[in-house]
Amino acid sequence: MTVAPATTALRVRTRPLRLDGPLLDTLPGDSGELCWVRGDEGLVGWGEVARFTGSGPDRFAEADRWWSSVVDGLDDHTDDVRLPGTGAVAFASFTFTDDSPGSVLVVPRVVVGRRGNRAWITEITPADAPFAATALRPPSPVRPGGRLRYADGDVPAHRYRVAVAEAVRRMRAGELAKAVLAHDLLAHADAPLDARFLLHGLARRYPTCWSFAVDGLVGATPELLLRRAGQIVESRVLAGTMWPSGSGDDVGAALYGSAKDRREHAYAVDSLAATLRPLVAELTVPETPAVLTLPNVSHLASDVRARLDPARPASLLTLIGAVHPTAAVGGTPTPDATALISEIEGLDRGRYAGPVGYLDADGGGEMGIALRCAELQGRTARLFAGCGIVADSDPDAEVREAAAKMRAVRDALEG
């Protein structure tokens, strides 16, 4: 575990802001874009005053302690808005596996947020430095990446099909019930990739998803892992997927009636409920899922709600550490599924399928699962997609499903 703590105490000031346009339009560019936005609401940030980096099985607990120390050490904290997301915040992105490096918390220098019809600006600065962001500066033009050339990643589609077939064989032999397998794809651009271009494209196509950017990982996830506001905890579980067939059939009805997808969804909901239950006082789980329809795919969705015990209120990162990885991105039983993933997937997922979002100063915030995303580095984007595999999965169908999920980022990159 490597921790780079803030070298000095911080001051925080949050003020109301008149904001007429989209939040994403305030990102200046070339300043380490940070984002957690859904529709017209959320947070964007830029600059950096403190950073945590870590790995290992204790990364969530270490990050929680680090963030608590930053909040406890605030030299001055003025909040004239007092809404979820105001005051001191850190943007967060964690790796899927314990041994993968790259988990990070970033405390930005400037945050712009909006909730309902109220907007604000938060400035965070070392205690011995003045506040400088008295007004938003004009952003630089958003740059398209130009022509894209695609190349195989570590696990191309044909190797992914082989891994799926092997997972199906293991499940039919009774070794486990479900595993989520992923593969990757590389996109090379003519010019350095602008995270804002991808964010704008994803937000425009998927306004009901959470568009995110943290330390070069950019995407739009439909899956809210956990939200903690006060004593209330909420989660949206997605598992079970179909995509439009072009035949005019009712995809939602077919998905809802699919025994395979309903079984996959039940695994994911049961997994989340089992890990949350010891940490909360009340837990409400829907008896049946709903259908969430996106432009490229449809998912079975269940919104789970819990109330914390006021005598022992767990922080958001404590809860995240308990529930990750859920069956929705790992499998069932989760220890067996993650072991199988490590054995046959052939991919270092990095922060793909890991928790991503933001933390506030009260131990709350929102974290989704990093899906429909790409890791940007210079002129290269590394795209990811994965599918839940059960005993009656068809490898060819799973390859097509992964391609449909990856299409979301490809379309946004291409403009």
Layout of helices and strands:
Blueprint: E1 10-16, E2 34-38, E3 41-46, E4 50-54, H1 59-72, E5 76-79, E6 89-93, E7 103-107, E8 110-115, E9 118-126, E10 148-152, H2 157-172, E11 178-189, H3 195-205, E12 210-214, E13 217-221, E14 224-229, E15 232-242, H4 251-256, H5 259-276, E16 282-284, E17 290-293, E18 298-307, H6 316-323, E19 331-332, H7 334-344, E20 355-360, E21 365-369, E22 373-377, E23 380-390, H8 395-414
Parallel strand pairs: 1-5
Antiparallel strand pairs: 1-9, 2-3, 2-12, 3-8, 4-7, 6-7, 6-20, 8-9, 10-11, 11-19, 11-23, 12-13, 13-22, 14-15, 14-21, 15-18, 16-18, 17-18, 20-21, 22-23
What would your notes on this structure say?
This protein folds into two domains: 10-126, no CATH class; 148-414, Anthranilate synthase (4-Layer Sandwich), CATH 3.60.120. Strand 14 (224-229) and strand 15 (232-242) form a beta hairpin. It has eight helices and 23 strands. Helix 2 packs antiparallel against helix 8 (395-414) and helix 3 crosses helix 8. The strands form two sheets. Strands 1, 2, 3, 5, 8, 9, 10, 11, 12, 13, 19, 22 and 23 form a 13-stranded mixed beta sheet that branches. Strands 4, 6, 7, 14, 15, 16, 17, 18, 20 and 21 form a ten-stranded antiparallel beta sheet that branches. It has helices spanning 59-72, 157-172, 195-205, 251-256, 259-276, 316-323, 334-344, 395-414; strands at 10-16, 34-38, 41-46, 50-54, 76-79, 89-93, 103-107, 110-115, 118-126, 148-152, 178-189, 210-214, 217-221, 224-229, 232-242, 282-284, 290-293, 298-307, 331-332, 355-360, 365-369, 373-377, 380-390.
